[in-house]
UniProtKB/TrEMBL annotation:
<dbReference type="Pfam" id="PF24996">
    <property type="entry name" value="NANM"/>
</dbReference>
<protein>
    <submittedName>
        <fullName>YjhT family mutarotase</fullName>
    </submittedName>
</protein>
<dbReference type="InterPro" id="IPR019936">
    <property type="entry name" value="NanM_proteobact"/>
</dbReference>
<dbReference type="InterPro" id="IPR056734">
    <property type="entry name" value="NANM"/>
</dbReference>
<keyword id="KW-0880">Kelch repeat</keyword>
<dbReference type="InterPro" id="IPR015915">
    <property type="entry name" value="Kelch-typ_b-propeller"/>
</dbReference>
<feature type="signal peptide">
    <location>
        <begin position="1"/>
        <end position="29"/>
    </location>
</feature>
<keyword id="KW-0732">Signal</keyword>
<keyword id="KW-0677">Repeat</keyword>
Length: 327
């Protein structure tokens, strides 16, 4: 999973839960020690032995682990990531190795931001990283993923690689007097013009292959959260375009190698709010059979602006980091 949060050294129970529903059902739920450094926009996963791994994001190429089964829990530094600093990666354990899918970053200090489509894996036994000889069929930034079984992962959503990359190329090339125009032209478009990814991909770590599992039953999203239990898949909210979230929740069943989409639902409004703006970068996971969703961020008022015909819907609105938990 990816971590989209403000700077925080606190690993609260909800964040630990969202790395895997097995944490609470196995009796691991607790307040964990501070991560050694503040971290945002990183990623994390948990292995079958109850060891949590977190890294990347604002910490560059650094990774840390903590064993939830130990009486005295401490974070340990592991081998640094060889693929360069990046944010918004998705990480999952497959075949007892930590897989890191995509992200967004720079090739070097002089390069524009770009979408990555690569995959890396980490061996806990050897404390070594290896670049997997594969490339995703679509760019992997703003995507989300779940583990289907020990060898297969489901990856969905994300920005359009070409449109996203072009924006940052244009920003870098523009003179200072022209940058605001580039920004306005990028954000002032309807959601359909961003072509966020609707394709659902299945990655098989055993065979190192990708499969097209169909499309989302509605609009493509970026920054959605995801959870799965007993073959029941849930994809929660995300962005429809930069700055504009959706409150829609997609549900599906994974059975015999295929997805069957169920009826959509909506995340309810927070107490005291007229409607739900939707969340991007939220945490989600199961605890004792209950799906919990928490955190994330949105731009209050953006949805109404968009409904009123203002495509640059979050212009002048401060991003709000949410602390509600839904279940």
């Amino acid at each position: 999973m990816g971590m989209h949060m403000k700077n925080s050294k606190k690993m609260i129970t909800l964040i630990a839960l969202c790395l895997s529903g097995a944490i609470t059902t196995s009796g691991y739920a607790t307040m964990l020690p501070d991560i050694p450094v503040s971290m945002k926009n990183g990623t994390g996963a948990i292995d079958n032995n109850g060891v949590v791994y977190v890294g990347l994001g604002s910490e560059g190429t650094s990774w840390y682990k903590i064993d939830l089964k130990k009486q005295h829990k401490d974070w340990e530094r592991i081998k640094s990531f060889p693929g360069g600093a990046r944010e918004q990666s998705v990480s999952l354990f497959l075949n007892d190795e930590l897989y890191v899918f995509g992200g967004v970053g720079k090739e070097n200090s002089e390069s524009p931001l770009q979408v990555y489509s690569d995959v890396y894996k980490y061996s806990p036994i050897k404390d070594t990283w290896h670049k997997v000889n594969t490339i995703s069929p679509v760019g992997l930034t703003g995507h989300t993923g779940v583990k289907l079984n020990e060898t297969m992962a489901l990856i969905s959503g994300g920005v359009n690689e070409h449109i996203f990359n072009k924006y940052f190329i244009d920003i870098m090339a523009a003179a200072d007097s022209e940058k605001n125009k580039v920004i306005y032209n990028y954000f002032n478009k309807p959601a359909k013009d961003y072509f966020f990814n609707k394709i659902v991909l299945i990655y098989n770590a055993k065979d190192n292959t990708w499969e097209n599992a169909g499309e989302l039953p509605g609009a493509g999203t970026a920054g959605a959260s995801s959870a799965i239990e007993n073959s029941s898949l849930t994809l929660i909210n995300g962005e429809l375009k930069p700055g504009l979230r959706t409150d829609v929740i997609y549900r599906a069943m994974w059975d015999k190698g295929s997805l069957t989409w169920l009826n959509n639902s909506q995340l309810p409004p927070s107490p005291g709010e007229k409607y739900q703006e939707g969340l991007a970068g939220a945490f989600s996971g199961y605890s004792h059979g209950v799906l919990l969703v928490g955190g994330g961020a949105n731009f209050p008022g953006a949805k109404q602006n968009y409904t009123n015909g203002k495509f640059y819907s979050h212009e002048g609105i401060n991003k709000k980091w949410r602390d509600e938990v839904y279940g």
